[in-house]
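Quick entry between incubations.
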Amino acid sequence: MKDILIINLKRFGDITLSTRLAYSLAGQGHNVHFLCFKEFSGITNIMNPKINFHYIDRKRIEFILKSQLVNDHLAIDELKKTINELKEYDWDEIHNLSNDKIASRIIPTIMSENTKVRGVQYRDNELIHSGSWEIYFNNIANELTTYPVSLHEIFFRLSGHKDSTDSTLFTRSASHEETVLKNFEKIRQKFSSYGNDIRLMGITPFSSSREKDISSDEVVSTIEALKARSPYIIPILIHAPIQAEKNAVKEILEKLNNNLITIECDFAALVSVVENIDLLFSTDSLFVHMANVLKTPVICVSNGPSPTLFQGTLGASDLILCREDIYANHNTRSATVEESTNTNWGEAYSQIITSHVQNPREINSEVFEELGINAVIPSHTQDGFVSYKNISLKPNHKDSQMLYVLQRNFFLKMLTATPINMKEITEELKKHDGLESFITEEKEKILNVTKKVLNCLRVTKVQGQNSSTIINHMSEIFSFLDNKKSLLYAPICYFYVECSQAPAVATQEEKLKYFEFKLFNLKNNIQALFQFLKDIEVTSLDSKNQSTVNRHREQRF
Amino acid sequence: MSQEKPRILVEHSKSNHKTIKVNGIYIHSRYNPVKEAKSFATASFDENASGYLVLGSGLGYHIDELQSLLEEAGQTHKRIFVIEPNADVFELADTYFDFTTSMKNRFYTDIEFDELFFNEEFVSFLAMKPKILIHPASYNANKAFFESFLTYKCKNSYSEYSEYRSAAPCTEDLKKDLKNVRKDLQKQTKLTNDEQLLLATYEFLG
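Done. Structure below.
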């Protein structure tokens, strides 16, 4: 049994997602602890007691540092309280899942010589990565135009464990359970004329970030449209007992003449509510992660400033909706900026909800196209993770999808040595017209960068070579980092990070040896990429030839 | 020069409640201190306030009324912190009102204004950004104290931090502001755990 500490100093959603790892490890019999900010203890208080939580009072520390009234040393003391608590353990493993400077600075103060650290940490003033997934998480994931490996997968890959979370991650109180079941039964009876078709749909439009919220007007128009289109879907507005949400709910109720079921519940009651509804229509927030654990189907409206293929809901029959207008406004990396539309979003959402309730796996991409919504569907991979598919037919999203598939498969090949199912990828990629030209361009870039790598390798071998010449050659390689849509970005970024972590105390000769070794690694990774693209090209050509033969056969027949 | 002790006189108001005069200033109404306290508390009450920091206790009428309003609003979890520089006044208040009934509230008296900012519980309370209520007559009776309190700026020197610690993590230039120590530490190639923690703390500023 190991003593394991997981750190996530982010918000509700990320904390909920990363407790899956904590709970999976606790399930293996380890003594698991979790460190987060105190302001998010609402959610951690309802987690299974197998996870031991520790808190940092961020608000207090920030107040002290910002205030001119109080000496900053009180802030250091405040942090030290938590550190002293954590120092009582001899950690076997520490997992930094928040990838931030605070966690990275804390780790060296609580670890021992034998602690295995996953994720980034500071060694003195240098940021250290302990492995490939750490570099991916810290330097690559957020730079790409798509998000080929979801945050859920990164957490588990980085930690080297499997997700075995089940609904017992959350605790429930018997009284809440009883009340919820009783009230939901009453609702079902009230609408019993719809027989077995009746569906209770929870709506959670609020999140901790206003720009992610589903607006009050959209909630109202969705509910009105649903009543007209599918009265057997009973919307239930779920909100927290906080003033801002109460005010928003009041506004919604006024617009609907109080004709809406609402539930005000704290975290303790929320689990029973989310578990007992038939569907959750939600903004991208902790509710989605909770519903995933409780196996409640989700339609997630992703209004945040993330790429369409960013991590989202994990359920096999879930749906992620990304509006074209919001995507264009947020995503400055998007090639095409669309003008905002005058769509009645309530009408659009109600249409999608209805067809999803009737047939979750039957997705008609044309419907979404007309509505100006990108629909993304998760699908489970063989190793228990999720890959996402944007079913939009618009050219820029099709390109994103193609890039996503290529990046995802290449990264997994590079980082996990997972054998690639070439037929499956080709099947997916053959729908994309731009594949051939993309591969041709990539191969050209690869040849170009290979020359530069070989040049650089040659220079490192010249005796007495001065470092500025080598740096100049390396800069030429790093210039390829400007193109984040290229598959070359990842191997070069790895090389860049590894070079920046060159041992500081080494002699010139040792340094050259280090760079030479890293250059060989880069060369191997680039060769692997070349081979990967070549394999796709060959398989897709075979597949094309095969389909041409089939077409001819059909025509002859 | 020793400071002259304030002259305190207890009188009965027209409503037969007690009132006091400090150095000739009436701290409560001469007519009806309870009515006056009620209107002060009602005007000051804010449903959204995280707590209340009251400058001046007087005989405690306004604090008692404020506590009643909190109870009526079902906000008994909210705390009231009171600063009364004059220990004699506070002692009198304590005889009229049993402030110990509410264990969560705090009263500070006979204390230097800067001492408060080293009191952990007081600092925690300030961190919640409570509503500050100035009891006008008490404020005027202790103007110098409250003005110094409200305009206080802490010394943020490294020496204070180092003295507070039993051993200084770094002995050079102890007069330096902690924020400057941080800048120096960021350039160092070796860091102790204490120094790493100091840097971690400043990461909260982003």
